[in-house]
Design goal:
It is a single chain. By secondary structure, the chain is an alpha/beta fold. It has helices at about 1-20, 70-80, 90, 95-110, 120-125, 130, 145-155, 165-175, 200-210, 230-235, 265-275, 275-280, 285-300, 305-325, 340-355, 385-400; strands at about 35-40, 50-55, 115, 135-140, 160, 185-190, 190, 195, 215, 245-250, 260-265, 335-340, 355-360, 360, 370-375. Strand 7 (about 190) and strand 8 form a beta hairpin. The protein is globular, with a radius of gyration of 22 Å.
């Protein structure tokens, strides 16, 4: 068989990944997502035998992933609208719930129209090749999410990769691409590995000066960044000036699955006609649409949740910094604890789990070589007691592994 000749090559690659400390094991949760969870281990006999651990590595920013109202909305939709669509949207895969959710997202973000996708990854990979051709140009931040990078690769437009957050380099790119039919600046709103923000006010100013469009992937901001949770455009005072926003229902907005692109009406209409992940993928299940609607309603009234999230993040960040950990500065609930070594990050994550804290070590290729880390993520679902216990566990393991004095 042909595969018998190829298998040793694959085995060597996997062995190299393990030796480098880069092998990624998936842990199994024995129950719902939340501030505390039950995680399977070799000795677990089931959920009842698994002690709860504090979960510091989920994107469940507002704690809505297991909110009773969100769960009930999903359950009710299964009863009234069925389990799945078994079709793409333009054939027979569109229900009233899909249209309601698209309108609700547009109203929430104050945009003209919205199109749903099975994920934000699909929203990003279906964006650039639909809107841009050989006569166009796309200018992309060097640290954009993998889905944005893949989406840009799929299009035939001229590409300019500007230094991360470097507005002088972006301006240079805009000057170099002068004369192109369409120029589109693409950036994450919040960069997920570092928790830092794109300078959207300056990006929009450059876009207006040079006649370019702006696209923002706001997955790590929708629902909780900005005064009312409208994301980074609201936080930087440029709401209405960003042409396209892609984001997800899989993080703060319920934590399930599904993504969307929201923005200028004509751009969304073109995506609906030509975007391949939209045209050739099943519609999101009705229960996801219903849960998304309920999550948006809760977010609209969620000032208390956002305040709790900010307070929780500030508390844990201060605790870790005072202990001596190298925490990347910022104001986002993502706080990277920098370690450098991939094997050390993996070992620290394993020890923290033994101490009752669930985190994951991030290493290459998810982050650059030499920048391995524990990415801590705080939620509104955490209690102050949860975070105090987590800080104590970090102190214990950090000293044991000689990371802190």
């Amino acid at each position: 068989m042909a595969y018998e000749k190829i298998k040793p090559l694959i085995d060597r690659q996997l062995d190299d990944i393990r030796k480098a400390g880069l092998y990624k094991n998936e842990r199994v949760l024995l129950g719902p997502q939340g501030g505390t969870i039950r995680v399977a281990t070799h000795c677990n006999q089931g959920a009842m035998g698994s002690p709860p651990v504090i979960n510091l590595c989920a994107n469940n920013y507002l704690g809505l992933a297991n909110h009773p109202a969100v769960v009930e909305a999903a359950a009710q939709a299964v009863r009234t609208h069925g389990y799945g669509m078994a079709s793409v949207r333009f054939i027979c895969g569109t229900q009233d719930l899909h249209k309601e959710l698209e309108r609700a997202i547009s109203d929430f973000l104050d945009t003209e129209d919205t199109i749903l996708y099975s994920s934000c990854f699909d929203a990003n990979t279906g964006l650039f090749e639909t809107l841009l051709g050989e006569e166009d140009a796309v200018l992309s931040d060097a640290l954009n999410h993998a889905s944005v990078i893949d989406g840009v690769r799929l299009c035939k437009a001229q590409r300019y990769r500007y230094g991360h957050g470097d507005m002088a380099d972006l301006e240079k790119g805009l000057q170099q691409t002068a004369g192109r039919r369409i120029r589109l600046i693409a950036t994450d709103g919040v960069f997920s590995m570092d928790g830092d923000f794109a300078p959207l006010d300056r990006i929009v100013e450059l876009a207006e000066r040079y006649g370019a469009l702006v696209m923002v992937d706001d997955s790590h901001a929708t629902g909780f960044i900005g005064a009312t949770g409208r994301g980074t455009p609201e936080a930087f005072g440029v709401s209405g000036k960003v042409d396209l926003i892609t984001s997800t229902l899989g993080k703060a907005v319920g934590g399930g699955t599904g993504g969307f692109t929201s923005g200028r009406r004509e751009l969304i209409e073109l995506l609906r006609q030509r975007s391949r992940p939209y045209l050739f993928s099943n519609a999101i299940p009705p229960m996801i649409a219903a849960a998304g609607l309920k999550a948006l309603a809760l977010i609209d009234q969620g000032g208390e949740l956002r305040a709790r999230l900010q307070e929780n993040a500030a508390f844990l960040r201060k605790e870790l910094e005072q202990q001596g950990f190298q925490v990347k500065p910022g104001r986002h609930p993502i706080m990277p604890v920098m370690l450098g070594d991939a094997a050390l990050a993996s070992k620290m994550a394993d020890r923290l789990l033994e101490e009752g804290v669930y985190v994951i070590g991030f290493s290459y290729p998810v982050v650059p070589k030499g920048e391995a880390r524990i990415r801590v993520q705080v939620s509104a679902a955490h209690t102050r007691d949860d975070l105090a216990k987590a800080a104590k566990a970090f102190h214990t393991v950090g000293r044991e592994l000689a990371i802190i004095a």
